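Researcher: Predict the fold of Phosphatidylglycerol--prolipoprotein diacylglyceryl transferase.
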Amino acid sequence: MIAYITWNASPDIFTIPEFWGIGPLTIRWYGLLFAAGFLIGQQIMAHIFKKEGKPLADIDSLTLVMVASTVLGARIGHFLFYEPSVLFTNPLEVLLPPYAGLASHGALIGILFGLWLYTRSRKATGQTYLWLTDRMVIVAALGGAFIRFGNLMNSEIVGTITDKPWGFIFMQNLEYSQYPRHPSQLYESITCFILTIVLFVIWNKRKAATPPGLLLGIFLIWIFGLRFMYEFLKENQVSFEDTLPLNMGQFLSIPAVLLGIYLVSRALRSTQKDAVAA
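Model: Structure tokens for Phosphatidylglycerol--prolipoprotein diacylglyceryl transferase follow.
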């Protein structure tokens, strides 16, 4: 008899009782992991800035830009791609908590736009757009690992039914608790963590000599190429996707992968030209 994994983890860590009319306040794994991604990412970027001689005073501003662009991009992206009617009927829901819907494709667009705004006034310090995005994707990959593990703790974004021995029975999600399912959140979390290591090793080997666009291109191909494949193992998020040949996540991943292929090809051609010139 195959023994499946019964996943009954609570999404809550602990609850702070009501005090002086404030609360109660529940601390959840998802929120803690989400915040940890930014805090650890800030330290990684400080290390990179120090190694490449960039002003450490810019780290706090960069962190604020990342937080704002990630949350706004993910929220707007969720409603734009999955619940567009809400943007017209209740636009304040996009900005007000609780943030029940976050779209990774929207977060990508938000981050890329936010970093573009940030670098416009910092080119004199060598923080060009591709220089910064190449290094920021190291942090983004780590953040993705934490967020997907947070999804696992929430028993959300569950996979399709499976007979594999590593299938999870999500006891906290009554809609999907009857049968073992692919732990798709864990698949994505693990591969995001591996990507973090790969990107950091590449950067650490070359640092300032890293071809512009190389790390960003690898990130896009890895994250969204695997996202396209993982979607075959996941339940659709919204009902309208059931009528589509591919779901929304897969459609949105295609241009990201194509952009990644272009950036990697461009970076490799630049490296070849430099080698010939030398």
